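Retry 2 of 3 after timeout on previous attempt. Resubmitting structure tokens to design endpoint.
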């Protein structure tokens, strides 16, 4: 993928300073979508890149540009951080790790009784169907924020975390844990980390996980991974609503407040 402002002498795009900083730090082939553009166009470009990436040996990710993320990605230039070391790390039991986090969160007050067994009608009515990536859409509702589509030169989708080392603040898992959860969910469900902002991650799947029992267990893992997915990301504040959303959706959305 060629970036017009760098490959064509007659074309010059002016990007946000944060965009330039993120591009410099990630240092991969990329394409920039201007603020105010269409989310549908960005999703279509991502899908095209995902198909091409399987042939050419890269994994695409979408990154919303802002100053907070640009500052955080300074870790990529820190001598104490090594992408190679993250990629070589010993494989963790991510399922056990998620269970540990879930148990800890439950001790803090989540009512597990909500959503047990058959999904109640109120959860089915409240659950959101998420079929496209949206973490880069502006809060005003008028188009997208400036967004970068990177082609990350890795073989496995979970390895993009080494290039986009998000985590280790508030309740967001550390980078090493983040990558292992991404590996676990890809190997078990085909979930691909697809879109990032400074406080969100979205995963894309080919099809929803539509088995009710599996979706409920997975919703528990989503709560373990990101308590705000339940506490602030649902209308009912329940794991049951997340389970129904999982059962209907091809995109998983996580936001850490």
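Retry 2 succeeded. Sequence:
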């Amino acid at each position: 993928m060629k970036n017009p402002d760098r490959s064509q002498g007659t074309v010059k795009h002016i990007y946000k300073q944060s965009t330039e900083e993120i591009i410099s730090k990630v240092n991969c082939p990329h394409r920039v979508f201007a603020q105010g553009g269409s989310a549908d166009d960005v999703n279509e470009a991502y899908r095209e890149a995902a198909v091409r990436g399987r042939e050419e040996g890269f994994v695409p990710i979408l990154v919303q540009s802002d100053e907070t993320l640009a500052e955080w990605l300074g870790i990529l230039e820190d001598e104490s951080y090594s992408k190679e070391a993250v990629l070589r790390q010993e494989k963790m039991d991510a399922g056990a790790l998620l269970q540990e986090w879930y148990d800890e969160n439950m001790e803090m007050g989540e009512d597990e009784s909500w959503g047990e067994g058959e999904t109640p009608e109120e959860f089915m009515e409240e659950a959101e169907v998420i079929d496209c990536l949206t973490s880069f859409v502006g809060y005003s509702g008028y188009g997208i924020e400036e967004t970068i589509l990177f082609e990350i030169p890795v073989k496995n989708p979970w390895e993009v975390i080494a290039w986009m080392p998000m985590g280790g603040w508030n309740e967001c898992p550390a980078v090493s844990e983040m990558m292992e959860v991404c590996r676990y969910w890809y190997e078990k469900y085909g979930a691909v980390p697809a879109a990032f902002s400074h406080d969100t991650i979205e995963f894309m799947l080919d099809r929803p996980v539509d088995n009710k029992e599996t979706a409920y267990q997975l919703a528990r893992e989503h709560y373990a991974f990101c308590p705000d997915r339940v506490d602030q990301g649902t209308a009912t504040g329940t794991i049951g609503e997340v389970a129904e959303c999982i059962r209907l959706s091809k995109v998983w959305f996580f936001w850490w407040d």
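Attempt log closed. Confidence is low (pLDDT under 50) at residues 2-11, 113-119.
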